[in-house]
Design brief:
The chain is α+β, with helices and mostly antiparallel strands and 264 residues long. The chain is built from five helices and eight strands. Helix 1 packs across helix 2, helix 3 runs antiparallel to helix 5 and helix 4 packs antiparallel against helix 5. The longest helix has 68 residues. The radius of gyration is 31 Å and the shape is elongated.
């Protein structure tokens, strides 16, 4: 899938309308294309904002009572005097069925009121989820702006990241701008995580590795921004390890990926 095909599919993907084959192809493409990833984030953010712009109101508690009262009035009104003997005989014969129908109407009204309340609660939950998604999209946009700033910087450098284990096919590239102290990791073919695990990025120094945060991979790939501006000593390298969820104070096992700065 090329950039033009991805751009045509972005809106459908953001709205959840893309089929699985199209979605898989788009996700593989944006994992390696910063421009399309940026456009995807904009589309997702727009879709979320559109959803949030629709006000949701909780159904009043009196709604159920009003529906039931209307059903009861309708049931009571059906007991009027017959207009004539022939009609009265037919009415009396038909009343058991009519009463049963009105009873079912009352139950249906009650069920509808309960259903409506559940639906409103679900909508409020969905709105909260959308608000969190918009917040997450904002963070993603900030990350992507940092990545684009590094890529467009005149002093950008790159260091290949290699798998430490000979059995792993993982690889990546660390790009950074010495002037701004900002950088980002692009990784591929990371091994699947066990439940309760995350990947953790590290800045290797002469004294000890410094944590640069945790992340999870998507189909073995990642684009993870890092900030080295607060590191006072020159880093020796950048690494990625597998750690328990929440991260560790120091790497608990060997690196999954590592890039040395010795030649940079």
């Amino acid at each position: 899938m090329d950039c033009q095909e991805v751009l045509e599919l972005l809106d459908a993907y953001a709205l959840g309308a893309a089929d699985k084959t199209e979605a898989d192809g788009l996700e593989r493409h944006v994992a390696d294309c910063i421009r399309c990833w940026d456009e995807l984030t904009k589309a997702q953010r727009t879709a979320a904002l559109v959803a949030l712009s629709i006000p949701l109101k909780e159904a009043p508690e009196r709604l159920g009572r009003r529906i039931l009262s209307a059903a009861q009035r309708e049931k009571g009104g059906g007991r009027g005097q017959p207009a004539g003997r022939g009609f009265g005989e037919r009415l009396r014969l038909g009343w058991p069925a009519a009463a049963g129908a009105l009873g079912l109407a009352g139950l249906a009204a009650l069920a509808f009121a309960a259903f409506l309340q559940v639906e409103m609660n679900d909508l409020r939950d969905e709105k909260s989820d959308l608000a969190r998604q918009v917040e997450a999209a904002g963070h993603q946009l900030d990350d992507q702006q940092q990545i684009l700033a590094v890529m467009s910087s005149s002093d950008t450098k790159q260091a290949p990241m290699s798998a430490v284990s000979s059995e792993s096919s993982a690889w990546g590239v660390y790009s950074w701008s010495p002037g701004s102290g900002k950088g980002f990791i692009v990784c591929h073919d990371l091994p699947p995580l066990e439940q309760g695990e995350v990947y953790q990025a590290w800045i290797s120094t002469e004294e000890r590795p410094l944590s640069a945060g945790t992340f999870v991979a998507s189909n073995g790939g990642c684009q993870y921004p890092m900030d080295l501006s607060s590191v006072q000593k020159r880093p020796k390298g950048i690494g990625v390890s597998r750690e328990p969820e929440g991260g560790s104070a120091s790497p608990s096992e060997k690196w999954v990926l590592f890039a040395s700065f010795e030649n940079n």
